[in-house]
Amino acid sequence: MILSFMDRRGTHIFKAPSPVWGYLPQINEWAGIHLVWECERVGGEDHIPIFRAIPVYDGERLMVFADEGESKKAAKEKAATKMALSGLCVSFWCFSVLNSAAQAQARVGSLQ
Do 8 and 88 form a contact (C-beta atoms < 8 A)? Predict the structure, then answer.
């Protein structure tokens, strides 16, 4: 059984954001190919649009981290900040060990 993103205890520590290196590039680097972003315009006037960004981690839509901004990038940065500060981002070596253990336990349970 693969763990949900929301079931994990985070071990990854992100650096304090700077104007050049905010949480968005750090989250994208941390997650690699496992994270994609859904972005859509949700309102605002033509000259002041509002966008919503939703992170999708390994196919799991993480609505709890969804956020809005005046651009797609601003919305993603706000959502990435929520994600980075959530305490749920696990370093990959640790996650693969936990996930392997969960899968092994599920196999043993199915044999009994």
Answer: yes
Which pair of tokens denotes residue 15? 């650096």
pTM over 0.85: no
The dihedral through the CA atoms of 90, 2, 34, 58 has a sign that is negative
Q: Is residue 35 within 8 Å of 55, Cβ to Cβ?
A: yes
Tally Cβ neighbours within 10 Å of residue 65: 23
Neighbours of 24 (CB within 10 A): 22
Give the pLDDT confidence of 50-100 residue by residue, as tens digits: 999 999 999 999 999 999 999 999 999 999 999 999 999 987 544 444 455
Domains delineated in the chain: 13-89 (3.30.160.20)
pLDDT the model gives residue 105: 59
- State which H helix or E strand residue 38 sits in: strand 35-45
